[in-house]
Amino acid sequence: MTIAPDLIQPDRGQDATPIHLVNTDTFETFAKGLSGPQRAALEAQKFNGGGYQVGIVPAKNTDDESWFAVGGVADPDELSAWCMAKLAEQLPAGTYRRAENHQPGPAMFGWMTAQYRFDRYRKEDDPEGPRILLTKDAAKIDLVTAEAQAASLVRDLVNTPAEDMGPAALEDEAERIAKAYDAKLEVARGDTLEKGFPMVHAVGRAAARSHAPRLIELDWGSDDHPRVAIVGKGVCFDSGGLSMKTGRGMLLMKKDMGGAAHALALAELIMKTGLKVRLHCVVPAVENAVAGNAFRPGDVLQTRKGLTVEISNTDAEGRLILGDALTLASEHDPELIIDFATLTGAARVALGPDLPALMARRDQTAEQLIAAGKDHDDEPWRLPLQQTYAEWLKSEIADTDNSHSNGFAGASVAGLFLDKFVGENIDWAHFDTFAWNPQARPGRSKGGAALGLRAAFHMLRGRYG
């Protein structure tokens, strides 16, 4: 992991530098309590209480070498996950606490994620060391640390280039999790997939042997607990297949396994926190490559479900591998299935990079996911599973087509395709997530991003905790 586990520590009265949080409304009152040199120091730093501003203020006594920090936030009384992230990025290494017995609350998460570093290929020395934050809410430390590490796992996996994060590497990650939490791991590989998971095999068969396709399963928990399935799209690189993307379109396609990264991170978070569920995690892992044996536009694929699928676009491959995976998950009759996928550009056109699109069969489940996301700064936005659009997937020679040609409602139509492979009457929610942050912001460096992870986890905690 590329985030330290001890960045949040219990406040036992140890030495720490105070942090005062203000906003533009409260800064003037705060500044009146400062000495002239202290106000001058903040003025020199152009600090006026604006969001994400950071100021360093010397002690009133010039003989005293101590100092304190000031951070600008939207509301000092209602912190978000990201309120103190800029402080964690910019302050010198050391130990800090909020001043006047205030607690950091939800800002602990951003304090940790702000110190994430992806250093697999380029080591960046930080001679100063970590920034540690103290809290009297010691009971919350383990949970927020687990969440921050889960988010960092998503970022690590997504940030890793496809050559080093192929299907075998996703299997290795699943094996690590299985060993750490005594889960059962089963993996089907290569040509053995052709009978049981024909769409996974078809999409992945053109890849080099070292990147041969996989169907990865993790089982964990007691049979006495409700069965929950987590499914993640693991397209480790997407060339578009024979419906090939442009070079620019391929540039970020190492992140097309972002759904698998979310599924594995959520599975580990569930195990680590001991959630009372019978967990079934399914990850179909492939590379959508180009070779003489690649599946073609016009081909008709068999599926685990028994439906036939006409291929009109080999670049709509994520929904194919998810179809077989969702069928498998449904066969175990779960109470709930949640899947994650970097599925459609249409979702990004509609919602941009920050909001994962959410589709769900049941209003109550969607409402719970949205509420959990709002409460933890990870809000999804619901899109419809509009059944009248399902006719756009009709095929003249097969049970369904894998894409539609009119360009309307692309995210919802992809969701409707997946819906065909989820068992009848099963509660199901689908996240079409971007898994990427296109520009650096406090607590969220540019690159891989966990979007929808905390919403799903806290919904599950609320339902099964």
UniProtKB/TrEMBL annotation:
Family: Belongs to the peptidase M17 family.
The keyword Translocase is annotated on this UniProt entry: no
GO MF term set: manganese ion binding; metalloaminopeptidase activity
GO cellular component, one term: cytoplasm
Residues forming coiled coils: none
GO biological process terms held by the UniProt record: proteolysis
UniProtKB keywords: Aminopeptidase, Hydrolase, Manganese, Protease
Keyword Isomerase: no
InterPro entries the UniProt entry points to: Leucine_aapep/pepB (IPR011356), Macro_dom-like (IPR043472), Peptidase_M17_C (IPR000819), Peptidase_M17_N_1 (IPR048816)
Species this protein is from: Aurantiacibacter gangjinensis
Protein name: Cytosol aminopeptidase
